[in-house]
Amino acid sequence: MNKNSDPVSRLCVIIPTYNNAATLQQVVMDAAEYCKDIIVVNDGSTDDTKAVLERLPNTVTIVSYNKNKGKGHALVAGFRKAKELAFTHAITMDADGQHFASDIPTLIKASESNPEGIIVGSRNLTEDNMPRQNTFANKFSNFWFRLQTLVNLPDTQSGFRLYCLSALRGLSFITSRYEAELELLVFAAWAGTDVTSVPIRVYYPPEGERVSHFRPIYDFTRISILNTILCILAIIYGYPRMALRKLRLITS
Q1: What does pTM read for this prediction?
Q2: Where would I find the H helices in 48-131?
Q3: Could you give the dihedral angle defined by the CA atoms of residues 75, 64, 2 and 89, in that order, rounded to the nearest 10 degrees?
Q4: Which of 70, 76, 200, 242 could bridge across to 176 with cysteines, CB 3.0–4.6 Å?
Q5: Is pLDDT above 50 for 3?
């Protein structure tokens, strides 16, 4: 039975996973306590994920492909499946167990006042065991997002979010790796989508127990290239579009 008093009539939870066999089943079962509709996207896992998926209830929708294509690709695949199944909103959660499913009602509550927007779960970056590289990457990302959209968010790297699916723009152009989550927010903000945040909890296991696919040099390089492109697009497309929208509000 769904625990939340969900104001969104068609809500699902999307969980992209790559080699999270040790935590995936518990994440799915925890999420199912708060939302009965779950979509798991198996992004070419090479561990025991297939066996875990076979143990999940048949009410869980599974999207699976053999070759790892990156978190961005997995998210887009999940969004497209959600739209295909006529969901209007989707919560995204990581499969590594860092998010608390009990925070799902917090995101849903925030959507009551922003039903057509995007709600980002904002982590406490001073949390125990928070990896230093995560803190740096988040501050780095926050700076560029604020520059590109003029919107201030405390955590642009959080994967725990509630999306109004109709607010998503440019899915065909979204990059395939970690930087995709920033790109989704930028395009949405340029389109006039209200992007807000709510505080959430986060759990990071001790360093020896973490499963991370983040490659600092490679992924920072990709993020830097993306931000360069987005800054150029902000000047020729994003800023003019935001200014035109503000002018229309003033004159209407």
Answers
A1: 0.88
A2: 49-55, 71-84, 104-111
A3: 30
A4: 70
A5: no
